Amino acid sequence: MKSTIENTVEFVKEKLEGAEAGHDWYHIERVWKLSAKIAATEDCNQEVVALSALLHDIADPKFHNGDETIAPKIAREFLESQQVSEDVIEKVLFIIKNISFKNRGEAPAELPIELKIVQDADRIDAIGAIGIGRTFNFGGFKNNPMYDPEIQPSLNMSKDEYKKSNGTTINHFYEKLLLLKDLMNTKKGKELAQERHDYMLGFLDQFYKEWNVD
Description:
Elements: H1 4-15, H2 25-39, H3 46-55, H4 70-81, H5 86-98, H6 113-124, H7 128-141, H8 159-164, H9 169-175, H10 187-211
């Protein structure tokens, strides 16, 4: 008989078949593995961490006209079908609703350790070489300009402004990616983020050299 985690893996793979490459099953798998690595260094409920990591992008609002109610509904229906306890379901749904970078201003001041872990893992997958690849993939998906020296990064955007933003892919580094290192919640998360952050800085240096044909 398969475990709840095994069933969740199958469910997520099926739901995300054909998804945009930066938010597909492989993104989920990396976040799941990173979450486990961080969770091993913290006192936490590892079932909540695993289920949240697997289900955190089951219906990313950016691909559903900004609707943030779809993911919790799908996750609840699936977890109930697996006879997961209501306590665990509530904790998983809380993480799904509060994990996003754009929602950070709405999240409670005190966050459960399980959310901190999965959030760190999700943010770590948004930076470094993988983060660069995902960022350019999504920029292409939206047909955003790669770079325009005349368009400055838009810092301190509101949630609505961030959701509607169609800035350049390079500006996204300054609007989000380079901010993530200092938003890590856990010691392990901070360690893992530093190397990836430094890699992005090196990439940007090289990008500008090549753009300017130095």
